[in-house]
Amino acid sequence: MKKERKKNKATLEVTPRRRGFSWRYRHMIGPQPDCILHCHDEYELVLHRHVDGKARINHANTSVNHNHMLLIGPGIAHSFDSYEQSEQSERHLFWFSHKWLNDMMYNCEEFRRLNSLLKRAGKCVHFSDSVADKVFDLVENSGNDTPLEQLATLIRVLSVITYDNESTTLLTHIECENENELGAARAKVERVCEYIAHHYQHPITLSDISKAMHCSESSIHRIFHTHFCESFSCYLRKYRLGVACEKLLTTHLSVAIIAETVGYNNLSNFNRQFKQYKGMSPREFRKHYQPKPVV
To answer: Helix (H, G, I), strand (E, B), or coil: what is residue 71?
Structure first.
């Protein structure tokens, strides 16, 4: 019985960071591993395409197939299992916080139409195929857009899903994960993130973080595996490259200086990892995304 409860307990998963963005987005292409039971502090909008599988949302189970799209509220446990995937399979994930939405609704009256939809998200909203198609058309080629253009796309997505008259809710009642347990996990995650944010410019090891948090290296390894769904080295690399992206767009520092300030002592290694991460070199990234000066 104890093992069964542990198996069915959702873990708090940290959404991927995007420097320069107030919300999160991830586009996954091709076959993906099954997604274990987890929850977020944010709302999650997820669109599946060209897949056949199932989803568990708290106490409810539902089939997942082409154009399956859900809006899942904060703290709602969910998982996804795939029976059949292909190279055409896609998963589009959007995350936005309750505070972000509240701020938008406070400052922009137009956003207040979202209020009813957000309340329904506590029971998990399932959208119609036609609306899922419209969302896909909006985001299909938005990956290389500027942050401002991507924000405009997100607003259009929120508008489309708000007016889906065929949407339904999957749960009979709102049931979030235990806040005390989530709070303890959240505190550990925040301490790890804070340490990296203050020391990313310098060499950092698991040992450094474990000493700062007064725990074992294996405990830190488990935190990254459980809550970040990636290794410590992968998270640190993405964090450093994210800061580099911000500096490329907001400063006139040379690529070499930026590489050094974010913790790289080898420019070739920085250029190689940056291209793997963004699909272009640092100079190409700056040229493509930096706002053009007004003449």
So the answer is: strand
Extents of the domains making up the chain: 2-169, 185-289
Half-sphere exposure in the Cβ direction for 175 (13 Å, CA): 11
How far apart are the C-alpha atoms of 76 and 124, rounded to whole Å? 8
Q: How far apart are CA 75 and CA 54, in angstroms?
A: 20
Residue 189 is predicted with a pLDDT of 87
- Residues in the chain predicted with pLDDT less than 50, given as ranges, are 1-6
- CA distances, 91 to each of 35, 86, 275 (Å): 12, 12, 23
Burial class of residue 4 (count of CB atoms within 10 Å of its CB; 0-12, 13-18, 19+)? exposed
Q: Which of 10, 34, 13 is nearest to 230 (CA)?
A: 13
In this structure, the dihedral spanned by the alpha carbons of residues 203, 205, 209 and 212, taken in order and rounded to 10 degrees, is -60
Return the bridge partners of 69, or none.
47
Task: Give the sheet arrangement for strand 43-49, strand by strand.
Answer: 24-29, 90-96, 43-49, 68-72, 125-126, 168-169
Looking at residue 261, its pLDDT comes to 96
CATH fold of 2-169 reads Jelly Rolls (2.60.120)
Predicted confidence at residue 3, as pLDDT, reads 41
What is the model's pTM? Answer: 0.78
- pLDDT for 142: 86
Q: How far apart are CA 201 and CA 49, in angstroms?
A: 39
According to the model, what pLDDT value does residue 174 have? 74
The sign of the CA dihedral 148, 153, 156, 157 is negative
Nearest to 288 by CA among 237, 240, 245: 245
Pairing state of beta strands 90-96 and 35-39?
A: unpaired
Q: How many CB atoms lie within 10 A of CB 144?
A: 12
Tell me the CATH class for 185-289. mainly alpha
